[in-house]
């Protein structure tokens, strides 16, 4: 038996792990936390206990390497060289990898990855991040002094929210987050005793972000808190949408108009699959809107080694770029970061390769591009496969998976099943996901863990399993859903 608490500070992995969080009523008063109990069918199978399946397929978390994705060779080479510098004399490693490793080691105290770095991160890596942002955004300037290396993107998001939350009662900071959301946000908001302010993405319009909905949410929230922060996840998790340029412009104008601090979670910026979709960074659009915006809108944007084509979750590498922060607040941010000394230096090295990969003319470029494109092309195929398969199932609807690495299909749950779920004191989609796990061995996450409109039901699953296993998974879900509808008709 394993209990997964969808609550702050209880993230863990043991056999079947999942993501977690809390949610709060719109009036800011009632925290709703989820205690999810899973019988560990994988352990039961290993013990020889008879089950209607031979393996558990863990489609509940975006952990690429755990799903069998191969590491990017160049990234691992550089980190290996940094970890054991004696390998710098080995002819088995290419010169471009050695060059990057030497540069990183020169930025480390004692030329060792085992030393503390500056709290903000190794200087040369922050310089590389700034150069990457400039290339990505077509020459928009980036200052290394505005770059902070972090323990994954999650650490940066939590740190920024920590310095922004203040006040009490109706003056307590409100944080606007999308629904559905990545549960890190509700968990941190709850931990900081801030006020969660929900705005709903438009499922009928491919999970689009509507500024009219932002305005509705903001105006309602002003009656019980002080909304100061607006969080955007682009590409979306769990919903997989990619915001278009006009949408981002509208959001920036809204933030400027209402004097909101923008948090742009852009960790899936490499994961864009649908034709006609393109990733636009909030930083780039902000600058293109002119000095009235880029000199005034406060923006923190985040990236990570964990997603993209790298999938290096375990290194816990990440960065944030913070713009237009008041100098005194910036000083407090540096102090806050100093408390945790520094992010993992091996993760910083991994982040450096994400932003400073091989370039044309270098020895490793051909292999690097081949590996990168293979991962992303494979993900694009799996995104389309998943969307198409789900939309063939009666009672299931899946929006186009434009980006990220998840599907968030809406499922029809008959009233008879809803009543049985209530009898078990479960959310209906939790009941559905438990039945799916018990009968097929497929582990997914109920939509109620991410938030959803009242009366709608979803689940989130990753598209990371290998194609053949993903096909098996989707066929099993289809068969299960049809039987589920028949049973509870």
TrEMBL record:
Name the enzyme group at the top EC level. transferase
Signal sequence bounds: none
Supply the Gene3D superfamilies for this chain.
1.10.287.1970, Aspartate Aminotransferase, domain 1, Type I PLP-dependent aspartate aminotransferase-like (Major domain)
Give the molecular function GO annotations. Answer: L-alanine:2-oxoglutarate aminotransferase activity; pyridoxal phosphate binding
Give residue ranges for domain Aminotransferase class I/classII large. 77-476
- Known catalysed reaction(s)? L-alanine + 2-oxoglutarate = pyruvate + L-glutamate
The protein's matches in Pfam families, at most eight in alphabetical order, are given as: Aminotran_1_2
The EC number(s) this enzyme carries = 2.6.1.2
A biological process from GO: L-alanine catabolic process
User: Which pathway or pathways does this protein act in?
Assistant: Amino-acid degradation; L-alanine degradation via transaminase pathway; pyruvate from L-alanine: step 1/1
Q: What cofactors does this protein use?
A: pyridoxal 5'-phosphate
Keyword set for this entry? Aminotransferase, Pyridoxal phosphate, Transferase
One GO CC term, this protein:
cytoplasm
Among InterPro entries, the record links this protein to: ALAT1/2-like, Aminotransferase_I/II_large, PyrdxlP-dep_Trfase, PyrdxlP-dep_Trfase_major, PyrdxlP-dep_Trfase_small
Q: How does it assemble?
A: Homodimer.
Q: What does this protein do?
A: Catalyzes the reversible transamination between alanine and 2-oxoglutarate to form pyruvate and glutamate.
- Protein name (record): alanine transaminase
| Native organism | Dromaius novaehollandiae
What lineage is on file?
Eukaryota, Metazoa, Chordata, Craniata, Vertebrata
């Amino acid at each position: 038996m394993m209990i997964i608490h969808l609550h702050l500070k209880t993230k863990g992995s043991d056999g079947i792990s999942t993501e977690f969080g809390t949610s709060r009523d719109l009036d800011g008063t009632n925290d709703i936390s989820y205690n999810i109990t899973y019988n560990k069918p994988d352990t039961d199978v290993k013990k020889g206990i008879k089950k209607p399946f031979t393996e558990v397929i863990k489609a509940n978390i975006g952990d690429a390497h755990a799903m069998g994705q191969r590491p990017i060779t160049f990234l691992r080479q550089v980190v290996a060289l940094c970890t054991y510098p004696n390998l710098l004399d080995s002819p088995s490693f290419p010169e471009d990898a050695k060059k990057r490793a030497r540069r990183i080691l020169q930025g480390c105290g004692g030329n060792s990855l085992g030393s503390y770095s500056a709290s903000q991160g190794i200087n040369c890596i922050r310089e590389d991040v700034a150069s990457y942002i400039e290339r990505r955004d077509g020459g928009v300037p980036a200052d290394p002094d505005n770059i902070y290396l972090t323990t994954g993107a999650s650490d940066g998001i939590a740190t920024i929210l920590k310095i922004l939350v203040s006040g009490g009662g109706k003056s307590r900071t409100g944080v606007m987050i999308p629904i559905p959301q990545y549960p890190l946000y509700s968990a941190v908001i709850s931990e900081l005793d801030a006020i969660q302010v929900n705005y709903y993405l438009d499922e009928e319009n491919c999970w689009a972000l509507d500024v009219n909905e932002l305005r509705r949410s903001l105006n309602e929230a002003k009656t019980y808190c002080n909304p100061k922060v607006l969080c955007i996840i682009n590409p979306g998790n769990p919903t997989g949408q990619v915001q278009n340029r006009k949408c981002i412009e509208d959001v920036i104008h809204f933030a400027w108009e209402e004097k909101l601090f923008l948090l742009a979670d852009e960790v899936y910026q490499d994961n864009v699959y649908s034709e006609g979709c393109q990733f636009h960074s909030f930083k780039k659009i902000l600058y293109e809107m002119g000095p009235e915006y880029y000199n005034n809108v406060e923006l923190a944007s985040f990236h990570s080694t964990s997603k993209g084509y790298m999938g290096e979750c375990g290194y816990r590498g990440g960065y944030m770029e913070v713009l237009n922060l008041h100098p005194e607040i910036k000083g407090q941010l540096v102090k806050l970061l100093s408390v945790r000394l520094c992010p993992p230096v091996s993760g910083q090295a991994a982040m450096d390769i994400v932003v400073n990969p091989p370039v044309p003319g270098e020895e490793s470029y051909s292999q690097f591009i081949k590996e990168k494109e293979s991962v992303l092309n494979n993900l694009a195929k799996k995104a389309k496969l998943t969307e198409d398969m789900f939309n063939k199932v009666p009672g299931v609807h899946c929006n186009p998976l434009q980006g990220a690495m998840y599907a968030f299909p809406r499922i029809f749950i008959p009233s008879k099943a809803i009543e049985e779920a209530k009898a078990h004191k479960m959310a209906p989609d939790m009941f559905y996901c438990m039945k799916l796990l018990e009968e097929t061995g497929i582990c997914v996450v109920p939509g109620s863990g991410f938030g959803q409109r009242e009366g709608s039901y979803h689940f989130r699953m990753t598209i990371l399993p290998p194609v053949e296993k993903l096909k098996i998974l989707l066929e099993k879900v289809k068969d299960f859903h049809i039987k589920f509808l028949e049973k509870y008709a």
